[in-house]
Amino acid sequence: MNYIKRILGNRELRKKIIFVLFMLFIYRLLAHVPIPGPDPDNVKSFIDNVFSKNSALSFLDVFSGGGMSRFSIVMMSLGPYVTASIMIQLLTIVVPKFEALSKEGEQGRRKLNQYSRLITLPLAYIEGYSMIRFLGSISAKSGQSLFANLSFLQWFVMLTSIAAGTIFLMWIGELITEKKIGNGISIIIFAGIVSQLPTTVGQTIQKMFVGQFNTQELIKVVVFLTLALVVIAVIVFITEAQRKIPISYAKKVRGAKLYGSIDTYLPVKLNMAGVIPIIFAAAFMNIPTLIGFLNTAKTPWIATSAKWIQTTFMPNTWPYAALLFIFVFAFTFFSTFLYFKPKDVAENIQKQGGFIPGIRPGTQTEHYLTYLINRVTLWGAIFLGLISILPYLVKPLTGDVNLTIGGTGLLIVVGVAIEVRNQIEAQLIIRSYEEF
What's the pTM? Predict the structure, then answer.
């Protein structure tokens, strides 16, 4: 209670929090703005009869914050922007120009972010078209026709509205990031996932009160809630876990004064990448779903390959879970070494006159940090991978009740909540020092 009073008592911080909440309110309003084109009666019939019964669509709908089931202008959420960010980060490794920009500090990051924005626009059109064709193919199989006989102008208006929704969300995310309450993109994804909780909880409670749950189903709900609490506790523990690398600074002579040695440490988190690997992996796992429009390709091998990929890697299948684990595992290492570069850290320690006890400064420190980061990140990557496929591991115990959010959603929700808390605490500490 005292913590909340401290937050509300700080006028500047309170204004920032209100601004972030207002941006999220606008995002939730956009999730109810439908795209122009499909007939509203056909859309309602499709959602009631097909969408809610399709586990793959329900799984994808969680990460769009319900925008996909409503055919809203933010149905793609921030997927195109996340994909663009991945492409730019990969280019920083391959292309020397992008690598040089990544080392130019704030100005270089701004240029790279601008490139990400530029790439997001065409990707929004491409991914939006793929998603509409995918939904159209599912509706055709069910005997309905959502997007039949659409003219070029209608296609253009639909795709432009979807692209505009994505760009607007990207802008909102950057405005939230500027307030230093947390990463805006992660907070928007967090809000989309959490927005599905009230409906799910309400439906479950309603079924319990009207007697639609038998004893076995009630046991599954209790098991699910227990597992959810345990998983949340484990996520918090792993997220806060860190390895402290001791750093010593030798005595320095500055002018006529002699400064004594200082012993400190370099914190290395077990999960240094946070929720970024999960978000990146989720964006890539949409590819098997989005290539559904290639099923009708005139080239036989393309159509056959697209059908095989789409069928094999459908959500809630074991091949999908295995591929998701691999993507999360790989992106954990990629993200960790993207933000923590042993060579740069070793150089900075050496320039400041520091050293790791028992390790020579320079190259040996770099090798030691690389070895240590690899070992720590290995366990962090395994943890993130297991969390991402948690619904498949516990499905025999809980049935389908856990697939509404799953381990991936829990990790994003808990991870973003911890990040926001840390950012708020940091601002509170800064402002407490400014008062003296």
Answer: 0.75
